[in-house]
Amino acid sequence: MCFDSHARIPHQGVCFMIRAAVAHTVCALFALILLAAPARAELPEFTTLAESTGPAVVNIATVKTVNTSEQLKDFFQFHDRDGRFDDFFDQFERFFGDRFRGGERQERSLGSGFIISPDGFIATNNHVVEGADEVKVNLQFKGKEESYDATVVGRDQETDLAVLKIDTEHELPTLQWGDSDIMKIGQWVVAIGNPFGLDHSVTAGIISAKGRVIGSGPFDDFIQTDASINPGNSGGPLLNMQGEVIGINSAIVASGQGIGFAIPSNMARRVIAQIRTGKPMQRGWIGVTIQDVDENTAKALDMDEASGALISSVMEGEPAANAGMKTGDVIKAVNGKEVADASELLKAIAALKPGEKAELTVWRKGDTLNLTVTLGQRDAERIAGGLDNNQPGDQTAPAEAEAYGLTLQPVPDQMASQLGIAKNLGLLVTDVQDATPAMNAEIQPGDVILEVNQKPISTVDKFNAILDSEGKDKGVVLLLLNRQGRNLFRSMVVE
């Protein structure tokens, strides 16, 4: 009830006017709040995208002949390195005889792919078709299912990509490439494929991460997505909201959900364009082994920041050696473009063609150099060689000594020959004590220390002298190790 402020009696007219004014004010404020509030985001609509892109996605069925006895032998060899099952294996073979030795069976598998040209070229994963005796492609054309025998035109094992070809009497629907570099974490993506043989399954999600390294090959640079990807999705497209291919679905985390990986389209597009010609993949090669530069390594090398690729060995007669590159150099840039780590260097060199010249910016003992390298041809089967140690070392007595958690001794002549190390060079690590600088530096028994701070060593006295002088001044030393014939660097803190 409303009251007059003087007479203290109700006035109905005044009360109505006040109520109307209050209501009007409340409505105005509510309208302002609605206008000021951000518009509520609606979930995207995938219907049109699925309808327009689905016909270009295919099912790939393969048949592979496998030798069951070889599979079993491989199993035993892998799981029985010590020969504990030899007797059982022999008895098994005697009992089953020829059936054990010569058994063969056909192994069938399913995957996905997508059409990249109207005349029947198809992109997929290498692991979908690798070793297959028969490859069939099933697709939907104008509402009808069609099946074709496919030919494997080209494969690239290092990026897990392959190109197939089918012959048809009509032009086929295709998918277009998108730009994977401009995609951002959190953007919507759609995966289409044949998980568990369920053809043309459509799933949606977002980009969870970019640049993932999962250990599948030397050029790992995966897009991670939570769009559902399962066995059978391999080789299928990952699409942006415009229906463009921004990735090729390739891997999953078997123990997780919502974690799938796709090869970025900008990498896949270049590889597929080359292997589509039927010629082997051409990649640049300089002939070095490399590793990342950590903080302690950068400190030992007097570098301002931990970046670039550290050269742990240079192969004799290869492009890097011919250009004057040395073990311990740090490659900072390729053709003026900085490389952050070993992985970036590998990709930058591999993106160039054999025969091209590359300008490498190199950090060497406090100086910056520019070296021009004429690239060779990368061969996936090459095995990195060891360092060519042709400088004689100091003579030393065959006595052990402990230093910074290490037990060291001269390298036996026979071991030096097996590792390709010059005689009288280096110190063999025979023991590493727990909770010591050496243990923290991941040095292992059996390693051979070749250099300390890029100085060749062969005596414990020289080893200790460098640690006591340069090591204590910087608080760290850089050790060049030979581990089972392969060179690598480790930085060790010196207190």
From TrEMBL:
Substrate binds at H127, D160, G232, N233, S234, S250, A251, I252, V253, A254. Pfam families: PDZ_2 (PF13180), PDZ_6 (PF17820), Trypsin_2 (PF13365). SUPFAM superfamilies: PDZ domain-like (SSF50156), Trypsin-like serine proteases (SSF50494). Its EC number is 3.4.21.107. The active site is at H127 (charge relay system), D160 (charge relay system), S234 (charge relay system). Residues 274-353, 405-484 form the PDZ domain. Belongs to the peptidase S1C family. It comes from Oceanidesulfovibrio marinus. GO terms for molecular function: serine-type endopeptidase activity. This is Probable periplasmic serine endoprotease DegP-like. Coiled coil: none annotated. It catalyses: Acts on substrates that are at least partially unfolded. The cleavage site P1 residue is normally between a pair of hydrophobic residues, such as Val-|-Val. InterPro entries: PDZ, PDZ_6, PDZ_sf, Pept_S1C_Do, Peptidase_S1_PA, Peptidase_S1C. The keyword Protease applies. GO terms for biological process: proteolysis. It is found in: Periplasm. GO terms for cellular component: periplasmic space. Keywords: Hydrolase, Periplasm, Protease, Repeat, Serine protease, Signal, Stress response. It comes from the Bacteria. It is an enzyme of class 3 (hydrolase).
